[in-house]
Write a structure and sequence with these properties.
Keywords: Oxidoreductase
Number of strands: 8
Largest sheet: 6 strands, parallel
Pfam families: ADH_Fe_C, Fe-ADH
Number of helices: 15
Strand order of the largest sheet: 1-8-5-4-2-3
Number of domains: 2
Protein name: Alcohol dehydrogenase YqhD (Iron-dependent ADH family)
Oligomer: single chain
Shape: globular
Radius of gyration: 20 Å
InterPro entries: ADH_Fe/GldA (IPR001670), ADH_Fe_C (IPR056798), ADH_Fe_CS (IPR018211), BDH-like (IPR044731)
CATH topology of the largest domain: Dehydroquinate synthase-like, alpha domain
Bound molecules: 5,6-dihydroxy-NADP, zinc ion
Length: 387
């Protein structure tokens, strides 16, 4: 097991109606607040009014920036940075999903920096200071509500890039499972896939003697698998929505990778897809993850067989561990298909015209992945396997 520091400051406020405390949780950080949100779902659901009322009750001066798109764009981030600087904003409140939260995080960093915010994504600058931010989460998926990372797309070249800093972790995240009832089935399923991918990225490690975190990963995966069909078939099932929502946070708050080194190759390979094709991140992962598994499983057949057995109840065949490992990969792919996700590029109507370009872009700063290092040709082969 690796040495580690586990430092996750995000205060989680979980349960029905908890959005009503957003005013009192926010005002602690100052009276000038930027309310950041997406394309309108929070207005349709009535959440916007509840949030604004709660903020106004505390005498908060609310500035607004809506319009965050899925796969958030750096142009809106730049607008947000200017707004914060011009109005001396003290605190950013993100109401929405991963895209809104990531956009808010980038604004929070950019607001305390004199140069262009994209510098953080290219590694040209490192975060020294940033505005504090809080979250009211409306979709369990990205785990950005308590992660230290942000992922933003630059329209100039369609680069989707990430960076992380511990200061980007939100101060608080309000998680009310009822707020997720309005999610379309496709977004629910993409969220389920993304949180499973966050665990799988951590699970497939070269680190030995990580039994506790192996088991925590497996338990969280099993909980998600056990509740996924229920939330799709019964969108207003509170208990199942609650299990999924908490799993989404646990999947990505860094507890599950304590003592281990995660892979993250599949995420990098997927980011090229959503950068160019604007595909939903979770749907892109449903395509890339099984292909990645097929490409790398021989690197540690025992670990893949353990995954098949403990997560999917595949009986271990001691005479043919490879068959056990492959059965686990097949179950994973079948599951993604069963919740309505595409599992091939063809399903998503994506052809092979950009394979070379995406493989090149994905590896231009060096090989991807830690479980198995992937160079340009490996990434290209994984796109081929995903066809
Ligand atoms: O924009 P609105 O109108 O709010 O609609 C959104 C959006 O169209 C809709 N939605 C959200 N909550 C809803 C709802 N519709 C009805 N009812 C609700 N309660 O769902 C759509 C998708 O929203 P988005 O925020 O894009 O989803 P998600 O949370 O999956 O975020 C995806 C982004 O997060 C990044 C991804 O790359 C992607 O850009 N990630 C961020 C990570 C991080 N910061 O730690 C890690 C992840 O691996 C991921 O890469
Ligand atoms: Zn993800």
């Amino acid at each position: 097991m690796q040495d580690f520091v586990f430092d996750n400051k995000t205060k989680i406020i979980f349960g029905k109606d908890k959005e009503h405390v957003v005013g009192e949780e926010s005002v602690v950080y100052g009276k000038k607040l930027l309310l950041h949100y997406g394309g309108g779902s929070i207005k349709e659901s009535g959440l916007y009014d509840k949030v604004v009322d709660s903020l106004k009750e505390q005498g908060v001066d609310v500035h607004e920036l809506g319009g965050v798109m899925p796969n958030p764009r750096v142009s809106l981030v730049r607008e947000g940075v200017n707004l914060c600087k011009e109005n001396n904003i003290d605190f950013i409140l993100a109401v929405g999903g991963g895209s809104v939260i990531d956009s808010a995080k980038a604004i929070a960093a950019g607001a305390k920096y004199d140069g262009d915010v994209w510098d953080f994504f290219t590694g040209k600058a490192a975060v020294e200071d940033c505005l504090p931010l809080g979250v009211v989460l409306t979709i369990p998926a990205a785990g950005s509500e308590s992660s230290a990372g942000t992922v933003v797309t630059n329209e100039d070249g369609w680069y989707k890039r990430a960076f992380g800093h511990i200061k980007l972790r939100p101060q608080f995240a309000i998680l009310n499972p009822v707020l997720t009832y309005t999610l379309p089935a496709y977004q629910t399923a993409a969220g389920v896939t993304d949180m499973m991918a966050h665990i799988l990225e951590r699970y497939f490690t070269n680190e030995k003697h990580v039994e506790l975190t192996d088991r925590l990963c497996e338990a969280t995966l099993r909980t998600i698998i056990n509740n996924a069909h229920t939330v799709i078939e019964e969108p207003e099932n509170y208990d199942a929505r609650a299990e999924i929502m908490w799993s989404g946070t646990i999947a990505h708050n860094d507890l599950l990778n304590t003592g281990r080194i995660g892979d993250w190759g599949s995420h990098d390979i997927e980011h090229e897809l959503s950068g160019i094709y604007d595909i939903t991140h979770g749907a892109g992962l449903a395509i890339i993850f099984p292909a990645w598994m097929k490409y790398v499983y021989k690197h540690d057949i025992n670990l893949f067989a353990q995954f098949a057995n403990r997560v999917w109840d595949v009986e271990i065949d001691l005479n043919n561990l490879e068959a056990t490992a492959l059965a686990g990969i097949e179950k994973t792919e079948q599951f993604f298909r069963s919740i309505g996700m595409p599992v091939t590029l063809k399903d998503a109507e994506i052809g092979d015209e950009h394979f070379e370009e995406m493989a090149k872009k994905a590896t231009e700063n060096g090989p991807r992945g830690n479980f198995v290092k992937l160079y340009q040709d490996d990434v290209y082969q994984i796109y081929q396997l995903a066809k």
